[in-house]
Design a protein that fits this description.
The protein is of the alpha/beta class. The protein is about 40% helix and about 20% strand. The chain folds into two domains: about 280 residues, Aldehyde Dehydrogenase, Chain A, domain 1 (3-Layer(aba) Sandwich); about 190 residues, Aldehyde Dehydrogenase, Chain A, domain 2 (3-Layer(aba) Sandwich), CATH 3.40.309.10. It contains 16 helices and 22 strands. One of its GO terms (molecular function) is succinate-semialdehyde dehydrogenase (NAD+) activity.
Length: about 500
């Protein structure tokens, strides 16, 4: 059966491939469409509307029109819609996961996990909607009353990536809707179907017209230009590369928009000699090879203390060599495809640079087949901090092993980067765990924990890894303004 036929069966007759603007689905104004393909097979999946600037403007208009009525909906009513949407996502978990695997490539088991993770943000922020508290402040004058109100920022634009096409939307949209904001979303052109499916579910859950608008397009420039030029868009949330994030900061200056930026990473994974070796190996596997290494928080540099380097490398390599590469719909698949040819080219460049610099391949090291986007999971021994695999974010299934001698040395290596999103440390020494947790210049630190992300904790980076936090109690703050009211009696 072709991918397109599997998708058609999965969609159960629904065809939400237009733009979601205002009252419902519509074609692009200019009639444009673009093709979505399966990165595992190259097969045509579907065509979606290709928006232009006029469509983006229409979406902003719809969001601005919906804002006054949505912002005054009582918090419990907003929360109820979010909870219904989360429940519908879990009811349709298999269907949504299949759509995701077809357009993104990740193994079906990982896609199921992402749907559950995505739904958890709607559930968490439903609760946060009911906990948006203001405050009273003791006044210094008897006839004054000082208050702080917390109100929605307004219309928000969201630009989301292809590697987590559902969760990166709900992590932004959940707090926005909970706060009473309205939204215009541009999903990645590689993975628009998951976003459109989420739009369908939100409408089914009872979200009013215009509160969430989804605009699919191949060219991001008209979208970004339009949202930054429009004064009514008060906040932009973006997940993607640091290079693009810097451009968005520049664009935001003219209208002084609030920004949330989750940008690139270069995560160190540090294994000390006193670590539980089996736990460290399993943690490195989970962190490095999830989604074929295409995550912003995956282990990019694996530092192993020299006294256990050989033992770690041996156990790790055996486990990596056993990973099956293939189509994500195959239950046996552990490593799916890279998203596109550009991603594969970067992996090839990083491996070639490491080999030229003296690294050696313990397993993998090549494309699974010459004509596809599959790359065999790779372990590189004798890597160094100066190699591309240690200086740049590889975003692929390549694990460089770097030896170190002591705590001070590895902390210096780990922090010697302009990025600071996630870091990992395996040790059974409680004092060292505290020192590393405090000394690592990263927004997220996993101590003996390779998968720390969760809806109820803040997610975000230091340095050039971004601005602001998503998730956790502080996640909704990004979508609220504080208004001070001083009242004379």
């Amino acid at each position: 059966m072709t991918d397109a036929r599997i998708l058609a069966q999965t969609m159960l007759g629904n065809e939400p491939y237009g733009l979601l603007i205002g009252e419902g689905w519509r074609p692009a104004t200019g009639g444009g469409r673009f093709t979505v393909t399966n990165p595992a097979t190259g097969d045509h999946l579907a065509e979606v509307a290709d928006a232009d600037a006029s469509d983006v403007q229409a979406a902003i208009d719809a969001a601005a029109t919906a804002l006054p009525s949505w912002s005054i909906v009582p918090a419990p009513a907003r929360a109820a819609i979010l909870r219904r949407a989360a429940g519908l996502m879990l009811e349709e978990q298999e269907r949504l996961a299949t759509v995701m695997t077809l357009e993104q490539g990740k193994p079906l088991a990982e896609a199921r996990g992402e749907i559950a993770y995505a739904a958890s943000f709607l559930t968490w922020f439903a609760g946060e909607a009911e906990r948006i508290y203001g405050m009273t402040i003791p006044a210094s004058i008897a006839n004054k009353r000082l208050l702080v109100l917390r109100q929605p920022v307004g219309v928000c634009a969201m630009i989301t990536p292809w590697n987590f096409p559902s969760a990166m939307i709900t992590r932004k949209l959940g707090p926005a809707l909970a706060a009473g904001c309205t939204a215009v979303i541009k999903p990645a052109e590689q993975t628009p179907l998951s976003a459109l499916e989420l739009g369908r579910i939100l409408r089914q859950a009872g979200l009013p017209d215009g509160v969430c608008n989804i605009v699919t397009c191949q060219d991001p420039i008209p979208f970004s230009t339009t949202i930054f030029d429009d004064e009514r868009v008060r906040k932009v949330s973006f997940t993607g590369s640091t290079e693009v994030g810097k451009l968005l900061i520049q664009q935001s200056a003219a209208t002084v928009k609030r920004l949330s930026l989750e940008l690139g990473g270069n995560a160190p994974f540090i294994v000390f000699a006193d670590a539980d070796l089996d736990a460290a190996v399993s943690g490195a596997l989970a962190s490095k090879f999830r989604n074929a290494g295409q995550t912003c928080v995956c282990a990019n540099r694996i530092f192993v203390q020299r006294s256990i380097y050989e033992a770690f490398a041996e156990r790790f390599t055996v486990r990596v060599a056993a990973m099956q590469v293939g189509n994500g719909l195959d239950p046996a698949t552990v490593i799916g495809p890279l998203i596109d040819q550009q991603a594969r080219t970067k992996v090839e460049r990083h491996v070639a640079d490491a080999l030229a610099g003296g690294a050696s391949i313990l397993t993998g090291g090549s494309a699974a087949t010459p004509e596809t986007q599959f790359w065999t999971p790779t372990v590189l021994a004798h890597a160094t901090p100066t190699m591309l695999v240690a200086r740049e974010e590889t975003f692929g299934p390549v694990a460089p092993l770097i030896g170190f001698d002591d705590e001070a040395e590895v902390l210096g290596y780990a922090n010697a980067t302009p990025f600071g999103l996630a870091a990992y440390c395996y040790t059974r020494d409680l004092s060292r765990a505290w020192r590393m947790a405090e000394g690592l210049e990263y927004g997220i630190v996993g101590i003996n924990d390779a998968i720390p992300s969760t809806a109820q904790a803040p997610f975000g980076g230091f340095k050039q890894s971004g601005l602001g936090r998503e998730g956790g109690p502080s996640g909704i703050d990004e979508y609220l303004e504080e208004k001070y009211v001083s009242m004379v009696l």
